[in-house]
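Our consortium's second objective concerns turning raw sequence data into structural hypotheses that experimental partners can test. To show how far this objective has progressed, the report includes one record in full. It was chosen at random from the queue rather than selected for favorable results. The single chain below, 111 residues long, was entered without modification.
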Amino acid sequence: MKTIPALLMAGLVAFSAGSFAEDHAAAALEHAQAAAAKGKEGNSDALVEHAGMALEHALAGAIVSKGKAKNHLEAASKELEEAIDHGNLKHADKATEHTQAAIEHIKAGAK
């Protein structure tokens, strides 16, 4: 009798992890796109702010993801770190390139 509730809990936890990963990926994408838009405007400070938020969500999503999605979120995180580094140096063009690469990884992981 105890196995049924245990199985239900295990299923719920597995479903929740996938849902959390999708939520984090969606938030990472939203902030990465905002960062890219600010970078195209030449606004390095705003790019860094949004890229930082995207990085937090990409890392959180990578923790609960598996397989291809995890690999792409980890790659996106590396690109976002580069974007932040270049943005802090006021290299908006290079920061935007890395942000665009992160966006592609986040989208690829969601497929």
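The partners drew two points from this record. Residues 21-110 form a domain with the Four Helix Bundle (Hemerythrin (Met), subunit A) fold (CATH 1.20.120.660). The chain is about 90% helix and 0% strand. Both points have been shared with the crystallography group to help prioritize constructs.
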